[in-house]
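Exam revision sheet. Question 4 asks you to relate a sequence to its structure. Input first:
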Amino acid sequence: MLYKISIQSHVTQRNNYSKARRSAGRRGAGGIMIVLVDLLLMLIDLTYSILAAVVQTFVRPRLKCIDGELCLITGAGGALGRLFALEFAKEGAHLVLWDCNTAANERTAELARELGVRVHAYTVDLSRRASIYEAAERVRAEVGDVSMLVNNAGVVAGRRLLDCPDEILERTLLVNCHALFWMTKAFLPQMKAKNHGHIVTIASALGLFSTACVEDYCASKFGAVGFHESLTHELLADDLDGIKTTLVCPYIVDTGMFAGCEIRKELRSLIPPLQPLYTVQQSMKAILAEQLMICIPRIMYIPFLTRALLPWEANLATYRFMGGDKCMLPFIKNVEMKTSNGVINSS
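Answer key, structure tokens:
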């Protein structure tokens, strides 16, 4: 608790100092002096942020209470979405569940209701902007204002770029990326009016670095990460400190979405696919701690950093050593076998 209070105190003092500095600038203070003060503030913030991150690694931060909050989860009929619904229900949040699969979504709703919370399930096609806006209007009229938005839904084509029909590629981008814009436009205004809310984006490690043969998925997740980060900057610039954001970037999760994907066999035990429950529990800790970003597992921070710091050729050598250049080929073969049945991989 002291850790959280110290952060809030630091942020408050910094904001007050910045306002005083801007006021001094308007009164005619020298431009060079203002730049030097800003530089000093930036270095203080930089040092403090690094130290706070180190402390947070060893000292568990205080987790916020979300009892009574209204939480909307997309893709609630899938493996991760169902687990998120149950975890939020355990924390006392009331739920609005969206999915295009009515039966799976209703099953999630049944399980969540057993935990004693109110649950409202809606069948929504996130690839259609009109479907999102219509469902959002129904939620506001029938349930109330959403205070926690978990953008969890995701799909992948699972086909080589030149073999994939355009409409399937477009669906990946619509669900994984474009829907984030529409969901935010639908629910952020109410959060801004109250300066209260939390927006969670379930992206992917493949939104931080890429791999071969899943161009649609990587592009959509890079877009999701970029959208989320820009939105976070906008909220901070508008001094809406009551609206929190959390970006979740997990490695491949063992939900069947990427069934068959394998790195080099000698290294599989080092980075195995994540268990869904573990992924959701780690995500929940970050959300309740109001952590801005989490990579799961922590080792995923390494390729994220090396991608920016090392030459392209150095990253490529590591990538090939790990078997990353061919890891999706077994997955694509599995999808090809299911194509005749009309199966679409989704989370």
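Marking note for examiners. The first helix runs from residue 2 to 26.
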